[in-house]
UniProtKB/TrEMBL annotation:
The chain crosses the membrane at residues 67-93, 202-222, 313-339. PROSITE patterns: ABC_TM1F, ABC_TRANSPORTER_1, ABC_TRANSPORTER_2. It is a multi-pass membrane protein. Gene3D superfamilies: ABC transporter type 1, transmembrane domain, P-loop containing nucleotide triphosphate hydrolases. It comes from Candidatus Entotheonella gemina. This is ABC transporter. It is found in: Cell membrane. Residues 393-627 form the ABC transporter domain. InterPro entries: AAA+_ATPase (IPR003593), ABC1_TM_dom (IPR011527), ABC1_TM_sf (IPR036640), ABC_transporter-like_ATP-bd (IPR003439), ABC_transporter-like_CS (IPR017871), P-loop_NTPase (IPR027417), Type_1_exporter (IPR039421).
Amino acid sequence: MIFVLFALAGVYTIAKSSKDKAPQSLGPSSAQDNTPVLNGPLLPSLRVHPIARLYKELNLTPRRMTPAVIASIVSTLCNLLSPLSIGLILHTVVAGRNSILSRLGIVTLRSQILTLGAVALAAQAADLLLEYYQRKKWREISRSLEHDLRLKTVAHVQRLDLAYIENQRSGQLKSVIAGDTTQVNRFFESGVDEIMRMTMTFVIVGAVFFALAPSLALLALLPQPLLLWGFRHIQRRIGPRYQELGEKTDEFGHLLTNNLAGLTTVKSFTAEDYEVERMANASEAVRRVNVEAVDTSAFYSYLMRMMLLGTSIVILTLTSLFVVVEALSFAAFIVITYFTMTFIQTTRRLDESYDLYKRTIASIERIFQLLDTEIAIPTGRRRLPLKHVRGDITFDHVIFEYNPSVKVLTGISLHANSQETLAIVGVTGSGKTTLVKLLLRFYDVNAGAIRLDGVNIRELSIQDLRNAIGLVSQDAYLFHGTVYDNIVYGRRTASFDEVVMAARLAEAHDFIEQLPEGYRTVVGERGEKLSGGQRQRLSIARAVLKAPPILILDEATSALDYETEAAIQRSFQRLSAHRTTIIISHRLSTVRHADRIYVMDAGKVHEQGNHTELLDQDGIYANLWRMQTGDVFSDKDAVIE
Ligand SMILES: Nc1ncnc2c1ncn2[C@@H]1O[C@H](COP(=O)(O)OP(=O)(O)OP(=O)(O)O)[C@@H](O)[C@H]1O
Ligand SMILES: [Mg+2]
């Protein structure tokens, strides 16, 4: 009985605490739960119990769940049926007959014992078979849950806006997509079955205790408050410790990731010792908190187990005394003894199961929090098929800030007619790249409007808008893969010849041919095995292959020597003949042939016109031109900064 109540208390605690928002961990395995909660408010939808939501949203149809649930239930029943049958055999032996079996037509003592033995054996066999089946079914469910959740989260993150992604700490999204989904897998693989098994064992064992020896059951009630208090106490004491451990582990992880990513910088500043010391401190913090957490957890865990065992021993002793004073039959004694053993075995993993449950709830909450994050930049409905894009671009009094208080663009107006080449120059940090990000709708303007072919880009389908634009960005990103993979990314349906053609136009073909495996050479993470200029040319080839109606070159040739740049410019002159081109550059020689040049400063346009007009205006541009051509200083490579 004590177990029943303890179990119910456990179930109650589990049910109750599942409503708590803050994830609390218990048990040594919690060390892996180091995922910080994602930035952003908890959404009202989280008030639905996370598992209920999971059930609803992930197509966990009864058809998928029922076989596993039934197998778990029947297997638990069979598991309890064996000791019951053995108790009945003893009862039959002592009493000389079994009235129920007699009524069923099995009259002789021998046949009754054989029947009960067969039942015990069959129950045992069924238990084993069903356990195998039930595990297989839960495994199937958990794997597909993990898969579904991963797909959902990955797909959602692809659509989230940059502002949200930038505000997450590195690795945070990854740990939701990879870590939290695995946690859900782990829980459904074994946790659900275990919790069902425990609950049923508690209830059935309790009912049998009450039926067999009500006074014993009542006696067992006495230490209940102590056990309940103990269980709650463990949670309260250990939860925060594991949370702290999670934070410390996380800090170490961040430090390590940053260190590995910036190893070149570390070495160049001979900061190895400093870095080792920083990581040693972080690692020491992890070690210290870990030791404390595991020690506390182990202490309480053993204390609880001792209390459970102690109670069991008291129960067994009392049961024996009951037999002695003939208040309990020997058969009942056997059943109670068996059940007590079964109970101890089942509850041995109570704290682990509870811990698994709590961590899973926290994981599911994080997953839904991510999935509930609304896409702040919704796509417009208006379609603009690629072949209808004219490429007429207007920035109309655009005001924009990344963060409130720091205005980046303070009322910019620009215009590029279809098929024109427009250039933007300006000091570093004046907001040139920001203009491009706004045109691609990575962010939305705060005021004013950007129009493509006379339509506000907010009304356009984002996909159509971005399909119309080819961007060679300032910090060109290459994916881990071959040179070919990286270029063909521009248009995944392109043929090999088209890829080579694009590489030729980007002056990349010759150097690619000289690479050890030509187009099949692997470029390394972020293209680290290539030079800066080689990377730039690959990203130009990628944009050229896309052949978009609008081409944007943001410092696309800044890493190239003059000769290569000049060669690429000749290619561009051919390319830009029938498309709108926006060139952003610090080198004025790159932009001098543009139809119109805008000179930006502090988020505003200060001068505009073509090269000759700007020289005539004798303002910022003319001054810069003189600097860069050496009319004033003899520094030929001077740039705007
Ligand atoms: N993601 C961001 N979050 C907050 N501020 C940003 C972000 N990106 C840029 N900024 C700020 O916006 C301003 C304009 O940046 P932008 O990249 O547009 O300059 P830029 O003209 O392209 O400079 P450069 O010539 O150096 O490339 C800078 O002050 C920069 O610090
Ligand atoms: Mg820039």
